[in-house]
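Final report, Chapter 2: Outcomes

The project's central promise was a pipeline that accepts a single protein chain and returns its three-dimensional structure in a standardized token representation, suitable for archiving and comparison. That pipeline is now operational. To close this chapter, we reproduce one record exactly as it appears in the project archive, with the input sequence first and the structure output second.
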Amino acid sequence: MPFLSLEFNLEALRKLAERGLSKEDALSLFRAAQVVWTATPNPRAEHSRYVIVPTPDGRVITVVVDRDTDDHGRWHVMTAWDATPAQIALYRKAR
């Protein structure tokens, strides 16, 4: 599932800011050597996924994205947070 573009609405930007994250942190998806995809445990959107990725400053974050049903290369950022210990372990195991 390639990322060709990420879209951010005002609500997503607000959620990122509440968690001390920026749009640039979420855009780490494009710069990371490796990202880990996983199903969203309780999806609010049918095509949403968790993407676990390191940021340039060394944090590991989980970004919730939802695939655009009209353009499969475009994804909408829903929210993000510092990855939980279990999510970090999943990321490290996949490396």
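Archive annotation: The helical segments are 10-18, 23-26, 28-31, 85-94.
This record, like all others produced under the grant, will remain available to the consortium after the project formally closes.
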